[in-house]
Amino acid sequence: MEYQLKPINVGLLGIGTVGGGTFNVLTRNQDEIARRAGRPIRITAVADRDLERARQVTGGCVRVTDDAFALVSDPDIDIVVELIGGTTVARDLVLKAIENGKHVVTANKALLALYGNEIFAAAQGKGVMVAFEAAVAGGIPIIKALREGLTANRIEWIAGIINGTSNFILSEMRDKGLAFDTVLAEAQRLGYAEADPTFDIEGIDAAHKLTIMSAIAFGIPMQFGRVYTEGIARLTREDIRYAEELGYRIKLLAMTRRTAEGIELRVHPTLISARRLIANVEGVMNAILVKGDAVGSTLYYGAGAGAEPTASAVVADLVDVTRMHTADPEHRVPHLAFQPDRMSDLPILPMSEVQTSYYLRLRAFDRPGVLADITRILADGEISIEAMVQKEPQEGEDAVDIIMLTHLTREKNIDAAIARIEALASISGKVTRIRMEALGRR
Ligand code: NDP
Ligand code: HSE
């Protein structure tokens, strides 16, 4: 089929997991994509450190270079797709591409969470687009949904399972009893994990994505440094099992909520009732719940990582940019949903002021008065107990596990109560504290 408009030329930086997937999807579906975009979109040059692999993936039909800076300055390239990752070279390349008047598509959430304010300002100044659907939740079109589909709403909160690797680890550990390190190695083999997998395990990757979603939802600047972040590395099998017995699943949840006192911005393991759909999201799948004042709750589900699911989002951005690149920059959808001169300075709420409910596990010597001491401390902190279970003592052990679920309370109150409980002579070791979310009940 002949098109009136000339093809859009794409320069691809990095042809690893996502870059390879993007090349394959764009090649396989090129006719369908051209019919949607109104002109062919073709990758005409690829930059990667590994030239041999780049030639193999592209089948030798594309110009290949190891000089990414030459590619972002190439006058024949219309759109630069940045898929090398990291925040050093990638930042320089993206800023250089913008300076050269090129549109950019990126999956790099770390780059946007840390330098998004600078990058979007530069893009605005140059009248170019920076598209980043693939940066959050892999193949799920959550950026489009938040920025456009839900634009009528005052967003109240977003809660998401947005790191495929950690969800995969939690699922495999629970269902197959596999060891943490074994499952992590498998996630790396499958191309889900970040170059530095501690980003996945420690909740940093989810915090990057939450930073981006929160900016779009509330019209605030990217504030990665203000996200409270706690990962899954310290979760124990016991807690996963006890949570199950009580009808809950533990997930690494990213949560941002608008409150009267400020914006909550937090990532941490969370107990969610097993009856909730989101608690049943397993493996590399992601899910995001968004509560808008008009629409109510909406749920978005799909593959959160991997070559082709992520490529699906990258190519969607390529089509969007292709359709919009001749439009007057003033009339395009703003990068972060809100007009850049209408951003809000809503404060971020310190974690100590956040209100949630809690799962507490403590080890107590089975003596009279222990429970009375604990409940008195909780009552002093105005913390009310929703449920409590005392486990049977193990053979030959003097201490028992006590599990408590609390009603909503402020983090600083529970911290103060835990410090007092840990100081009791009848308590052995540290108290385990995991936050709980009812998701929708407030
Ligand atoms: P990979 O490591 O698989 O691919 C990156 C590629 O870029 C590699 O081939 C790498 O070469 C190359 N590269 C690195 N630095 C340079 C450089 N300076 N010049 C040229 N080439 C370079 O990463 P992914 O594809 O997994 O991730 C890419 C981006 O997408 C990251 O920002 C990641 O966070 C994001 N992302 C990844 C997802 C996934 O499922 N994997 C999902 C969503 C987003 P070498 O191997 O030699 O280092
Ligand atoms: N490492 C990320 C994850 C890739 O596991 O979710 C997708 O962003």
Describe this protein's structure.
With 442 residues, the protein is α/β, with parallel strands linked by helices. The chain folds into 3 domains: 2-139 and 307-342, 3-Layer(aba) Sandwich (Rossmann fold); 142-303, Dihydrodipicolinate Reductase, domain 2 (2-Layer Sandwich), CATH 3.30.360; 356-436, 2-Layer Sandwich (Alpha-Beta Plaits). Helices cover 37% and strands 25% of the residues. It is built from 15 helices and 17 strands. It has helices at 17-28, 30-37, 51-58, 68-72, 89-99, 109-126, 142-149, 164-176, 180-189, 198-201, 204-218, 237-245, 307-324, 370-380, 411-422, and strands at residues 8-13, 41-47, 63-65, 79-82, 103-106, 130-131, 155-161, 228-229, 248-259, 262-273, 285-292, 296-303, 355-365, 385-390, 399-406, 409-410, 427-436. The strands form 2 sheets. Strands 7, 8, 9, 10, 11, 12, 13, 14, 15, 16 and 17 form an 11-stranded mixed beta sheet that branches. Strands 3-2-1-4-5-6 form a 6-stranded parallel beta sheet, sandwiched between helices. Strand 4 (79-82), helix 5 (89-99) and strand 5 (103-106) form a beta-alpha-beta unit. Helix 5 (89-99) runs parallel beside helix 6, helix 6 (109-126) runs parallel beside helix 11 (204-218) and helix 14 packs antiparallel against helix 15. The radius of gyration is 24 Å and the shape is elongated. The mean pLDDT is 96. NADPH dihydro-nicotinamide-adenine-dinucleotide phosphate (NDP) is lined by residues 14-19, 47-50, 68, 83-85, 89, 107-108, 134, 138, 191-192, 194-195, 305-306, 310.
